[in-house]
Protein backbone atom coordinates (compact mmCIF):
# COMPACT_ATOMS: atom_id res chain seq x y z
CA UNK A 1 0.00 0.00 0.00
CA UNK A 2 1.34 3.42 -0.94
CA UNK A 3 2.39 5.57 2.01
CA UNK A 4 0.95 9.05 2.50
CA UNK A 5 3.36 11.65 3.87
CA UNK A 6 1.66 14.04 6.29
CA UNK A 7 4.58 15.62 8.16
CA UNK A 8 7.99 17.11 7.40
CA UNK A 9 9.70 14.35 9.37
CA UNK A 10 8.04 11.71 7.20
CA UNK A 11 9.17 13.46 4.02
CA UNK A 12 12.70 13.81 5.37
CA UNK A 13 12.86 10.15 6.38
CA UNK A 14 11.52 9.00 3.00
CA UNK A 15 14.77 10.10 1.34
CA UNK A 16 12.94 11.79 -1.51
CA UNK A 17 15.06 14.34 -3.38
CA UNK A 18 18.31 13.39 -1.67
CA UNK A 19 21.28 13.38 -1.80
CA UNK A 20 22.43 16.65 -3.36
CA UNK A 21 22.25 17.58 -6.25
CA UNK A 22 18.91 15.84 -6.84
CA UNK A 23 16.22 18.42 -7.52
CA UNK A 24 13.12 16.78 -6.05
CA UNK A 25 12.90 18.81 -2.83
CA UNK A 26 13.35 22.07 -4.70
CA UNK A 27 10.73 20.89 -7.20
CA UNK A 28 8.27 20.06 -4.42
CA UNK A 29 8.85 23.44 -2.76
CA UNK A 30 8.17 25.21 -6.08
CA UNK A 31 5.02 23.15 -6.58
CA UNK A 32 3.68 23.92 -3.09
CA UNK A 33 4.42 27.65 -3.34
CA UNK A 34 3.74 28.40 -6.99
CA UNK A 35 1.60 25.71 -8.57
CA UNK A 36 -1.16 25.10 -6.03
CA UNK A 37 -3.35 27.20 -3.76
CA UNK A 38 -6.13 26.22 -1.38
CA UNK A 39 -9.77 27.22 -1.65
CA UNK A 40 -12.86 26.47 0.40
CA UNK A 41 -12.73 23.12 2.20
CA UNK A 42 -9.00 23.03 1.37
CA UNK A 43 -9.56 22.06 -2.24
CA UNK A 44 -6.30 22.18 -4.21
CA UNK A 45 -6.70 24.80 -6.94
CA UNK A 46 -4.00 24.69 -9.56
CA UNK A 47 -2.18 27.86 -10.58
CA UNK A 48 -0.46 26.26 -13.56
CA UNK A 49 -2.17 24.23 -16.27
CA UNK A 50 -0.82 20.70 -16.75
CA UNK A 51 -3.07 20.16 -19.78
CA UNK A 52 -1.26 22.98 -21.60
CA UNK A 53 2.20 21.70 -20.74
CA UNK A 54 3.06 24.52 -18.33
CA UNK A 55 6.54 24.14 -16.81
CA UNK A 56 7.06 20.90 -18.72
CA UNK A 57 3.97 19.06 -17.42
CA UNK A 58 3.10 16.18 -19.71
CA UNK A 59 0.67 13.29 -19.73
CA UNK A 60 1.50 10.43 -17.38
CA UNK A 61 1.01 7.36 -19.50
CA UNK A 62 -0.43 4.43 -17.61
CA UNK A 63 1.33 1.19 -18.40
CA UNK A 64 3.07 -1.80 -16.83
CA UNK A 65 6.73 -1.55 -16.00
CA UNK A 66 9.30 -3.96 -17.47
CA UNK A 67 8.29 -6.58 -14.91
CA UNK A 68 4.53 -6.32 -15.49
CA UNK A 69 3.91 -4.57 -12.18
CA UNK A 70 0.97 -2.20 -11.70
CA UNK A 71 -0.19 0.26 -9.11
CA UNK A 72 -3.77 0.13 -7.89
CA UNK A 73 -6.20 0.72 -10.77
CA UNK A 74 -8.83 3.42 -10.56
CA UNK A 75 -10.79 5.64 -12.97
CA UNK A 76 -9.58 5.97 -16.56
CA UNK A 77 -8.67 9.65 -16.39
CA UNK A 78 -5.30 11.19 -17.18
CA UNK A 79 -2.59 12.09 -14.74
CA UNK A 80 0.26 14.50 -15.43
CA UNK A 81 3.91 14.49 -14.47
CA UNK A 82 6.42 17.34 -14.07
CA UNK A 83 10.10 17.56 -13.20
CA UNK A 84 11.95 16.51 -16.36
CA UNK A 85 14.56 19.24 -16.90
CA UNK A 86 15.22 18.31 -20.52
CA UNK A 87 14.10 21.52 -22.27
CA UNK A 88 14.76 20.01 -25.70
CA UNK A 89 12.01 17.50 -25.03
CA UNK A 90 9.84 19.73 -22.84
CA UNK A 91 10.62 23.35 -23.79
CA UNK A 92 8.37 24.90 -21.14
CA UNK A 93 10.50 23.31 -18.42
CA UNK A 94 12.73 26.36 -18.92
CA UNK A 95 10.15 28.34 -16.91
CA UNK A 96 10.99 26.37 -13.76
CA UNK A 97 12.95 28.60 -11.36
CA UNK A 98 16.72 28.44 -11.25
CA UNK A 99 16.83 26.84 -7.82
CA UNK A 100 15.08 23.79 -9.32
CA UNK A 101 17.22 23.37 -12.43
CA UNK A 102 20.64 24.88 -11.70
CA UNK A 103 22.37 21.61 -10.77
CA UNK A 104 21.07 19.60 -13.73
CA UNK A 105 23.45 16.74 -14.52
CA UNK A 106 22.69 13.28 -15.87
CA UNK A 107 25.90 11.96 -14.35
CA UNK A 108 24.83 13.04 -10.85
CA UNK A 109 21.22 11.76 -11.14
CA UNK A 110 19.95 15.27 -10.51
CA UNK A 111 17.09 14.83 -13.00
CA UNK A 112 15.58 11.70 -11.50
CA UNK A 113 12.72 13.11 -9.36
CA UNK A 114 9.16 13.80 -10.48
CA UNK A 115 5.81 15.06 -9.20
CA UNK A 116 2.66 13.35 -10.48
CA UNK A 117 -0.78 14.90 -10.12
CA UNK A 118 -4.34 13.91 -10.84
CA UNK A 119 -6.82 16.54 -11.96
CA UNK A 120 -10.33 16.99 -10.60
CA UNK A 121 -13.31 19.00 -11.83
CA UNK A 122 -12.57 22.28 -13.63
CA UNK A 123 -9.63 23.70 -11.72
CA UNK A 124 -8.49 21.37 -8.98
CA UNK A 125 -5.79 18.84 -8.26
CA UNK A 126 -7.18 15.66 -6.78
CA UNK A 127 -4.00 13.96 -5.55
CA UNK A 128 -0.29 14.72 -5.55
CA UNK A 129 2.56 12.21 -5.57
CA UNK A 130 6.35 12.31 -5.55
CA UNK A 131 8.45 9.60 -7.14
CA UNK A 132 11.81 8.88 -8.72
CA UNK A 133 13.21 6.81 -11.56
CA UNK A 134 15.05 3.64 -10.67
CA UNK A 135 16.35 3.46 -14.25
CA UNK A 136 15.86 5.56 -17.39
CA UNK A 137 12.51 3.92 -18.16
CA UNK A 138 10.68 3.09 -14.94
CA UNK A 139 9.63 4.71 -11.69
CA UNK A 140 10.52 3.10 -8.38
CA UNK A 141 7.34 1.88 -6.63
CA UNK A 142 9.24 1.71 -3.34
CA UNK A 143 10.11 5.41 -3.59
CA UNK A 144 6.66 6.69 -4.55
CA UNK A 145 4.59 8.57 -1.97
CA UNK A 146 1.38 10.51 -1.80
CA UNK A 147 1.80 14.05 -0.45
CA UNK A 148 -1.06 15.16 1.78
CA UNK A 149 -2.73 18.54 1.56
CA UNK A 150 -1.62 19.26 5.10
CA UNK A 151 2.04 18.72 4.20
CA UNK A 152 1.73 21.02 1.18
CA UNK A 153 0.27 23.68 3.46
CA UNK A 154 3.19 23.30 5.87
CA UNK A 155 5.71 23.69 3.05
CA UNK A 156 3.91 26.79 1.74
CA UNK A 157 4.49 28.56 5.06
CA UNK A 158 8.26 28.03 4.95
CA UNK A 159 11.10 29.75 3.15
CA UNK A 160 13.13 27.60 0.78
CA UNK A 161 16.13 27.83 3.09
CA UNK A 162 14.09 26.68 6.09
CA UNK A 163 12.57 23.81 4.12
CA UNK A 164 15.87 22.46 2.78
CA UNK A 165 17.48 22.74 6.21
CA UNK A 166 14.58 20.84 7.78
CA UNK A 167 14.95 18.14 5.12
CA UNK A 168 18.68 17.77 5.80
CA UNK A 169 19.46 18.64 2.19
CA UNK A 170 23.24 19.11 2.25
CA UNK A 171 25.38 20.63 -0.47
CA UNK A 172 29.10 19.91 -0.48
CA UNK A 173 31.35 22.93 -0.09
CA UNK A 174 33.10 23.29 -3.44
CA UNK A 175 36.84 24.08 -3.52
CA UNK A 176 36.21 27.45 -5.20
CA UNK A 177 33.87 28.43 -2.37
CA UNK A 178 36.46 27.42 0.21
CA UNK A 179 39.19 29.44 -1.52
CA UNK A 180 36.99 32.54 -1.56
CA UNK A 181 36.20 32.47 2.14
CA UNK A 182 37.89 35.06 4.38
CA UNK A 183 40.60 33.62 6.57
CA UNK A 184 39.81 33.09 10.24
CA UNK A 185 41.73 31.89 13.26
CA UNK A 186 39.39 28.96 13.70
CA UNK A 187 41.03 25.98 12.00
CA UNK A 188 38.02 23.71 12.35
CA UNK A 189 36.32 22.99 9.05
CA UNK A 190 33.47 21.01 7.61
CA UNK A 191 33.13 19.23 4.29
CA UNK A 192 29.44 20.02 3.94
CA UNK A 193 27.07 22.90 4.47
CA UNK A 194 23.31 23.37 4.33
CA UNK A 195 22.01 24.98 1.15
CA UNK A 196 21.14 28.65 1.60
CA UNK A 197 18.99 30.83 -0.62
CA UNK A 198 19.00 34.62 -0.65
CA UNK A 199 15.88 36.13 0.89
CA UNK A 200 15.75 38.50 -2.07
CA UNK A 201 15.41 35.66 -4.57
CA UNK A 202 12.22 36.45 -6.54
CA UNK A 203 11.54 32.71 -6.96
CA UNK A 204 11.00 32.46 -3.19
CA UNK A 205 8.18 34.99 -3.06
CA UNK A 206 4.45 34.84 -3.58
CA UNK A 207 4.49 37.22 -6.55
CA UNK A 208 2.20 36.93 -9.57
CA UNK A 209 3.05 33.67 -11.34
CA UNK A 210 1.65 34.90 -14.67
CA UNK A 211 4.97 36.59 -15.38
CA UNK A 212 6.93 33.40 -15.07
CA UNK A 213 4.88 30.73 -16.79
CA UNK A 214 3.11 30.57 -20.11
CA UNK A 215 -0.52 29.92 -19.20
CA UNK A 216 -3.16 30.49 -16.55
CA UNK A 217 -6.20 29.00 -18.33
CA UNK A 218 -7.86 26.27 -16.32
CA UNK A 219 -8.93 22.94 -17.77
CA UNK A 220 -8.93 19.65 -15.86
CA UNK A 221 -10.01 16.02 -15.62
CA UNK A 222 -10.02 13.51 -12.78
CA UNK A 223 -8.29 10.16 -12.26
CA UNK A 224 -5.93 7.91 -10.25
CA UNK A 225 -2.67 6.68 -11.85
CA UNK A 226 -2.45 2.96 -11.89
CA UNK A 227 0.85 1.82 -13.40
CA UNK A 228 4.47 2.61 -13.68
CA UNK A 229 5.50 4.34 -16.89
CA UNK A 230 8.36 5.01 -19.22
CA UNK A 231 9.92 8.47 -19.50
CA UNK A 232 7.66 10.36 -21.88
Give an overview in words.
The chain is an alpha+beta fold and 232 residues long. Helix content is 19%, strand content 18%. It has one domain. The strands form two sheets. Strands 1, 2, 3, 4, 5, 6, 7 and 8 form an eight-stranded mixed sheet that branches. A two-stranded antiparallel ribbon has the order 9-10. Residues 178-217 are annotated as: Disordered. Residues 178-197 have a biased composition (Polar residues).
User: Beta fraction of the residues?
Assistant: 15-25%
The residue-averaged pLDDT reads: 77
Helical percent range?
Answer: 10-25%
Return the string of H and E elements.
EHHEEEEHEEEHHEHE
The unreliable regions are: 184-232
Largest sheet: 8 strands, mixed
First CA to last CA: what distance? 25 Å
Counting DSSP H or I runs of 4 or more residues, the number of helices is 6
Radius of gyration from CA coordinates: 18 Å
Number of strands: 10
Structural class determined from secondary elements? alpha+beta
| Gross geometry | globular
The count of domains is 1
Summarize the model shown.
Residues 178-217 are annotated as: Disordered. The protein is an alpha+beta fold. It has helices at 8-14, 24-35, 98-101, 149-156, 160-167, 175-179, and strands spanning 4-5, 36-38, 44-46, 58-60, 79-82, 113-120, 124-132, 145-147, 170-172, 192-194.
Amino acid sequence: MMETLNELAQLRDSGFGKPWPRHGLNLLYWFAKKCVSFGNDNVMIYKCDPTKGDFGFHLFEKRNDDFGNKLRPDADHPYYVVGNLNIKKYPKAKYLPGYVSKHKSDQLNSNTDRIIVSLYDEEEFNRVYVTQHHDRSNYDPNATYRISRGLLMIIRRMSLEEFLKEMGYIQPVLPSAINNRPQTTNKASSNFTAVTISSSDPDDSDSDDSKTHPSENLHTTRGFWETLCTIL
